[in-house]
Amino acid sequence: MKDFRSENGYSLVESLVAMSILMAVLVPVVMLLIFITGNTIAKDKITGFNHARNQMEMVLATESDTTGYKKVDDYWWVKTEVSKDKNFYTIRVKAFKNDTLTPARIELETGRLWYKD
């Protein structure tokens, strides 16, 4: 019969203790990373929505029927599209982060009747 005490390696108890210490450190770090990532995504959505809403309000207040792009800060672009069908105007505002080649983060759309001379 072999003598098991002379074999090299870790016992089951030592392995379980090492795994529990690893999990005690790893789980909070992963949760922190998930929280930080989720917070950044929410912040981007709120910022994009605010830029799009401000542009929409400007178009509605000035009754501007121009279409184009506008850089609103260092990271955000806003695209305004105004289409006309008789006196009914459809206004679409899209907010982009960093460049306009990526999909829009936020899109707003509304319709208004404007009777212009």
Descriptive overview:
The structure is a single chain. By secondary structure, the chain is of the alpha+beta class. The protein has one domain (10-113): 2-Layer Sandwich (Pantoate--beta-alanine Ligase, Chain: A,domain 2), CATH 3.30.1300.30. The protein is built from one helix and four strands; from the N terminus they run H-E-E-E-E. It has one helix spanning 12-62; strands at residues 68-71, 76-85, 88-97, 106-113. The protein has a four-stranded antiparallel beta sheet. Strand 3 and strand 4 form a beta hairpin. The relative contact order is 0.13.
* C-alpha end-to-end distance: 105 Å
**SSE topology string:** HEEEE
How are strands sequenced across the largest beta sheet? Answer: 1-2-3-4
Largest sheet: 4 strands, antiparallel
**Rg measurement, Å:** 28 Å
Helical stretch tally: 1
CATH architecture: 2-Layer Sandwich
- Count of individual domains: 1
Class of secondary structure makeup: alpha+beta
At the fourth level of CATH, the homologous superfamily is GSPII I/J protein-like
Beta-strand content: 25-35%
What characteristic shape results from the CA principal axes? rod-shaped
CATH topology: Pantoate--beta-alanine Ligase, Chain: A,domain 2
Question: What average pLDDT do the residues reach?
Answer: 88
The CATH first-level class comes to Alpha Beta
Task: Work out the oligomeric state of the chains in this entry.
Answer: single chain
| Low-pLDDT residue spans | none
Query: Helix content range of the residues, please?
Result: 40-55%
Q: Care to count the β-strands? A: 4
